[in-house]
Amino acid sequence: MNNKKTPAMPRTPQSIDRQIRVFISSTFRDMKAERDYLIKFTFPQLGRLCESRGVTWGEVDLRWGVTDEEAAEGKVLPICLEEIKRCRPYFIGLLGERYGWVPQHIPDDLIAQQPWLEQHRHRSVTELEIIHGVLRNAEMHQHACFYFR
User: Fold this and answer.
1) Is 55 in contact with 13 (CB distance < 8 Å)?
2) For residue 41, which of 47, 49, 118, 139 sits 20 to 30 Å off, Cα-Cα?
3) pTM, to two decimals
């Protein structure tokens, strides 16, 4: 038996996983019709287009992903911020008539991880998503898309 290791193949652009993940930010009740349209019609088309080009498509719509238990335990904001980070640089903001839910308390450990939150207490989760996802990073501006109703 030969104990020599086979040299690793160099990674080419074709062998690297290509993925697009888009974070959808809005108040849940206010923009339900718009979110539903994106999920039912727009995103499937984008998914097929990406697939035809060897790119994996995914959207993050947290109206399906945050449980009541997580909301009660104050985990909504950390989950949102982490998902935005994972989706960078792609962000869609849907803004209508509602301001959104304002957390009564931001955990100290989250502020330690995200010091910018200290100066943005008493803001809605939607506003914090937009600040974190787009406004704090100029490189994000060209990849963000906003819909205003």
Assistant:
1) no
2) 139
3) 0.80
